[in-house]
Design brief:
By secondary structure, the protein is α+β, with helices and mostly antiparallel strands. 47% of the residues lie in helices and 24% in strands. The strands form two sheets. It has a four-stranded mixed beta sheet with strand order 3-4-6-7. Strands 2-1-5 form a three-stranded antiparallel beta sheet. Helix 1 crosses helix 4 and helix 4 packs across helix 5.
């Protein structure tokens, strides 16, 4: 069990590193939407598992999961600025979670979308990378907005 937890943490770190380096996040999409599953760790106030929308740091990892679990869904690249600005904010507003680099057993880290966005922003800053956001006047404006929401959790 401990080995599996370490593997999940390592795959999450790989997710952060690769999406910051490449500027792309991968999802699996079909006409009925993006790949998602029920949370193993989080429930809503009624005791129903929260939906986890799944993402990967590269096309191969996404493709492997599609072939094993989501036949008919195709890998779709999402630019990092769009992932942060639309997906992280949107899934947070919808009370969903985000899974990162799930393996073939569908084990992966389940993330609060704002915490994930904040973690990516910190890593971007450590690499001196600035994104051009479309719905915010600047990278700094988006970072400030995320920090304000993030600080509500502390």
């Amino acid at each position: 069990m401990l080995e599996n937890a370490k593997a999940i943490i390592n795959r999450h770190k790989k997710f952060i590193d690769e999406v910051v380096e490449n500027g792309v996040v991968w999802g699996l999409k079909s006409s009925d939407g993006y790949a998602a599953l029920s949370s193993k760790n989080y429930e809503d106030e009624d005791g129903t598992p929260i939906e986890v929308v799944c993402f990967w740091s590269n096309e191969k990892l996404a493709t492997d999961c599609a072939q094993e679990h989501w036949n008919g869904k195709e890998p779709r690249a999402i630019k990092l600025f769009r992932f942060l600005e639309s997906w992280c904010i949107g899934t947070f507003d919808d009370n969903l979670m985000m899974g990162t680099n799930l393996d073939l057993e569908l084990a992966g880290q389940e993330n609060n979308p704002i915490e994930l966005a904040y973690e990516i922003l910190i890593h971007l800053k450590s690499k001196d990378k600035i994104l051009d956001f479309k719905n915010h006047e600047s990278h700094e404006a988006f970072e400030k907005a995320v920090k304000e929401i993030y600080n509500q959790f502390e």
